[in-house]
Amino acid sequence: MITVKVSSKYQVVIPQKIRNKFDIKVGQKIQLILHQNRIEFVPLKDIKEMKGFLEDMNTYVPRVKDRI
What we know:
Blueprint: H1 16-21, E1 30-35, E2 38-43
Antiparallel strand pairs: 1-2
């Protein structure tokens, strides 16, 4: 687990290990999501970078026979 400290200006530094893993760049936007009692940081990607990211997704959905 990695711990960061909130500065007097309510800023946090994202550790290098995390920046490298998620390829976070200077000026990149990060969305904050509040979920129950936690805050999630989600790096936003340019739509051009997203092309093909669902390519290997399994889209099979089991169907009830009388609903086909």
